Each structure stands twice: as C-alpha cells, then as structure tokens.
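Onboarding guide, step 5: your first structure request.
Type a short instruction followed by the sequence, for example:

Predict the 3D structure of this protein.
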Amino acid sequence: MLYIYSAFLSPFQADNIYIGKFLTVIFTLISAYFLFKISKLLFNDFTGLLSSLIFLLSPLILLLGGVIKTEPLQQLLIIIGVYLFAKAIKDKKLNTRYLIFSGGLFSLAFFARRSSLIYILFSILILIFTSLNFRNFIKRVLYFSVGILIPFILIISFFIYHLGFNKTYLIFGPPILFYGT
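The system replies with structure tokens like these:
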C-alpha cells in the first residue's frame, strides 16, 4: 500500500515531502471527524467532541500526524471502516452496503499495515455476538467477507499481472531494497 501511496505522490517530484506531510495531516483530521461520528452514533454529541479532542491531543497522534508513515492512512481506513460497521450493526435490518464497504476498508487497511488483521477478526466476533439467529449471522459474514475479498483480489491480481508471481516481492517489497544489505 505504501507503493501505491508513493505512486500518487510521484508526479510532484520536488515537493513529495511537503505533499506527503500535508496528506498525513489531512488523514489525521478526517480520522478525528469520523471518530466524532462514531461517538455521536453510539453515544451523544458531547462524547463525540470529547473523544475527537482526546484523539487529536494524544502524544502518538501528535507525533505521527505530520510524519510520512503508513499509520495515519491505516487509522483513517480503520476508523471509517469501524464507523460503517457500527452503522451496519446498529440497524435492525440487514444493511449490506455498510458491511461490504467496511470490509473493503479493513482489507485496504490490511494492505497499509499488516496489524490491521486484528480488526477483521474482532469484527467477525462482533457479528457472532450481535446476530439474532444463525441465518442472519451467515448473511452478515458473507457480505462482510465479500467486502474484504474485493480489494484483496484486485490488489493481488494487480501485483501478479504487473510483476509476475513473486512471493518475495509481495512480502518484502522490491528487490532493489536488498542490494545494500
């Protein structure tokens, strides 16, 4: 995912650092907004404002908010995915769009950082405990899995098509990084 992130920045050759820092700040602010929306959905406006304020003033966010790393992109994708997932769970009827989009965002977050896999596992556990019957559970997990698989298949097929099937490249990155080690 970092390669795709840097590919978007490549047309701006000289200003990559400034645009990258600007994008991480934008990712952090959008994350704070969706954190407000999650808290407002589950609790109330005051809790939403308080959670966004605590989020923006936390030392880790202040440290990583202006640094070009994958953490701000990962947190943005996860927070928007959690918001859509909470909206899908809060509805009594089956809302397939929210489940598919939240699964897709969790899948993209997995490509940003591998530690995002835990959010996919916890989401499936939440689906287990919130489903009223087995048929409802199977439908929800199926739609959530479709959302996970669509970006996963598209990104993996992109790498296989353009680079050939090279497991080392998919796991460790381009081979040019290994020449100096």
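Each response can be followed by summary notes, for example: The chain has nine helices and no strands.
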